[in-house]
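re: ur question from earlier - yeah i can do the single chain one, its not a big deal. heres the input i used so u can compare w yours
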Amino acid sequence: ITMMMNMEKRHGEMKPVIQKALVDLNGAPFKNFAAKRAAWAIHTSYVYPGPIQYFGPTEVCDQPTKTLLLEQKGTASV
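and the output i got, formated as tokens:
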């Protein structure tokens, strides 16, 4: 797991740390959220995504997350 972490200098030594992941306020996922925020404050639009599928048909197992779809397609609504 440490191979997936970033190395940062902490107290004079290089240590493996989890990289900060800040929200890109100009990115498509946040813009999509901001466009729907007012409606979500009034109405519930939750959709249960189901369990994570590791085995089975590719159309079920290989579906990207909504965030990844928005990042790949830009501001297109998902």
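The longest strand covers residues 6-10. not sure if urs matches, ping me
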